[in-house]
Amino acid sequence: xxxxxxxxxxxxxxxxxxxxxxxxxxxxxxxxxxxxxxxxxxxxxxxxxxxxxxxxxxxxxxxxxxxxxxxxxxxxxxxxxxxxxxxxxxxxxxxxxxxxxxxxxxxxxxxxxxxxxxxxxxxxxxxxxxxxxxxxxxxxxxxxxxxxxxxxxxxxxxxxxxxxxxxxxxxxxxxxxxxxxxxxxxxxxxxxxxxxxxxxxxxxxxxxxxxxxxxxxxxxxxxxxxxxxxxxxxxxxxxxxxxxxxxxxxxxxxxxxxxxxxxxxxxxxxxxxxxxxxxxxxxxxxxxxxxxxxxxxxxxxxxxxxxxxxxxxxxxxxxxxxxxxxxxxxxxxxxxxxxxxxxxxxxxxxxxxxxxxxxxxxxxxxxxxxxxxxxxxxxxxxxxxxxxxxxxxxxxxxxxxxxxxxxxxxxxxxxxxxxxxxxxxxxxxxxxxxxxxxxxxxx
Length: 443
What we know:
Helix content is 69%, strand content 0%. It is mainly alpha-helical. The chain has one domain.
C-alpha cells in the first residue's frame, strides 16, 4: 500500500514537503554542500573516497527532492542554463570514445552531481544568502587550516603527511591547510576575500567579524606563497576598480565606459603577454612556467590528433589512461591535471567542448557584469568578481572543472541566467517568476 493510501500518509508527505520547502532547510542544505565541497580533500584523506561519494550522492538526492518540493515556485525554463546542459551533454557523449568508458562515466557522474548541487543552491538561495553561506563556511575552513598549520609547524613540529600539510608555517610558508596544495589554499583564500568584502559592504555581519575574516584571508593567501595568488589578486582588484567605475558613472554614459574598459582590458592583456617573462621573473615563477610550457606543448600535440572531439572526459587525470600516461612518462612527472582548465577542456572535450565551456562562463560573466553595473546593491558584484577570479585561476589551475571551482562556476551561471536572458520574455507571457532577489537598498 502506498504512503498516500495509508492512513496518515498524505499528512506525512505534506509535512515532509513543508520541511523541504522551508528556508531553514535550504540554509542547512547550502551550508552542508559548501562544507562538503571545501572539505573534499579533508574528507577523502580522513574517511576515504567511499564516504565522500556517499555524501555527494545523498546531497544530490536531497537536492532533487528540494527542487520537486519547490516546483510551484521554480520556473522550468530558468532551471538550468542552456550552455550548462550542452556542456554536460557533450561531456557525456565523449565517454563513448574515451580509452576507458567506465571510468569516464564515473567522472561524468561526479561532474553532473556537483552541477545538481549548484543548481539547487542557485534556486533555493538568493545572492546575498549564498554570499553569507560561503563566507561562513570559508571562515571555518580557513580557520581550521590555520589551526592545523600551527599545530603541525609550531606545536609538534611534524608534518601531517596524510593531509599534505608540510608544517612550514614557522618559516612563513608555504602552507597548504586542509586543501592539499598551496595553490588551492591561495585560490580559496582569494575567493573567500571577495566574499568577505562583499559581506562587509552589505553590512551582513558585525564589522569586527568582517575585519577578522579579511585578515584571516590575507594571512593565509600570503602564507600560501603561491605566485598564482598575486596574479589572481591583481586581476580581481582591477575588475573591482572597473566595476566601481561603471557603477559610479551616469546611466547614459555606461555603454561608452563599458566599451572603453573592454578595449583597455584587451590592450592590457596584450601588454602582459609581451612582458610575461619579466613579470614571471619578478614573481619568481620562471621555472614553474617552463614546466607548464612543456606540459602544455605535449598536451597540444594530443589536441591536434583529436581536435574536434577530444580524448574523452575524465576531469582530474586518470594516470593509467591515454593520453595522460604518455604525457607524464615523457615529462617524468606525475601531473593530475593540465594546470590550465582551458587546455584540459581542449584535450578531453576538443574544440566543441572549449566553445561550450567559454560560452557557459562568458555569457554568465557578461550578464552578471551588466546586472551588477546597474543594480544599487553591492551584493550583485559578487557573481562577476567570482567569475573573473575563476577565469584567471583557470589559466593556472584546472579547479573550475571539478569540486569547489565547478560548484561556484555553476552557481554563478545559474544566478546570471535568471536575468537578462531569453527566459525573461517567457515570463511576460505567464511563466512563473523565480523568488525575488534581496532588496536593492542593501549595501
